[in-house]
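tokens incoming
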């Protein structure tokens, strides 16, 4: 099989997943957009969290041209990138009990705010405890996960529960357990993960739904422009000044 045919198969698999999410998750995506619009219009704050590669879709909606200026990344040191040495430490930290509570308690997140938690498997202690603690202090929790993991794996949290069990709204990425779309004779392991593509698309779809919901209410969405277009820096400066009390990535 040619390399180009494999590449085409990956695109087909990713497109198929995107179509499933579009058709099957329209209701939850709309609900998530409405929840974010409620927070923006109500003077509340927005946060996104993900560990490991699940941090990538969370980071993708923070300080992003065309994105909501109010979305903040809730960082857990050692889990948000592959610059941690050794890289396996990040995976280990996802299984540490109590870490989520410590991070959330020291964050600016408060009652009435929205927290989007992204975890492909939703089975590790960190995302489960993050959701549990966030709801306990009155945050609205939106979970982005693969529901398949909750039926095909065992939870690593002491409660035996998954991220999906502690969310106000759950968005199912439809990613199969293992996150690898392709196989080939002669290659011993499945390959070509699609979770980042699909989950990033879900996040941008939610942001689009939120912008539309705000516009329908007569509220101008606090969007950022690209700094590489004329007037972009000036536009962003005005937005950040107006909403500075809810933007934490500037400090």
């Amino acid at each position: 099989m040619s390399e180009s045919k494999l590449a085409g198969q990956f695109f087909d698999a990713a497109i198929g997943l995107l179509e499933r999410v579009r058709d099957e998750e329209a209701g939850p995506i709309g609900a998530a957009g409405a929840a974010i619009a409620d927070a923006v219009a109500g003077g509340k704050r927005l946060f996104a969290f993900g560990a490991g590669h699940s941090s990538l879709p969370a980071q993708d909606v923070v300080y992003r041209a065309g994105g909501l200026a109010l979305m903040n990344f809730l960082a857990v040191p050692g889990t948000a990138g592959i610059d941690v040495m050794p890289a396996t430490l990040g995976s280990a930290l996802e299984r540490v009990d109590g870490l989520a509570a410590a991070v959330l308690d020291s964050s600016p997140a408060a009652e009435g705010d929205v927290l989007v938690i992204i975890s492909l498997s939703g089975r590790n202690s960190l995302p489960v405890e993050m959701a549990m603690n966030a709801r306990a202090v009155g945050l609205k929790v939106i979970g982005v996960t693969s529901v398949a993991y909750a039926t095909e794996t065992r939870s690593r949290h002491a409660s035996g529960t998954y991220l999906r069990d502690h969310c106000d709204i759950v968005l199912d990425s439809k990613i199969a357990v293992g996150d690898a779309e392709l196989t080939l004779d002669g290659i011993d392991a499945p390959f070509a993960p699609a979770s980042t593509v699909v989950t990033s698309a879900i996040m941008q779809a939610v942001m689009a739904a939120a912008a539309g919901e705000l516009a329908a209410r007569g509220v101008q969405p606090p969007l950022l422009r690209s700094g590489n277009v004329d007037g972009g820096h000036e536009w962003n400066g005005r937005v950040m000044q107006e909403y500075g009390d809810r933007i934490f990535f500037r400090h």
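note: The two ends are 52 Å apart (CA to CA).
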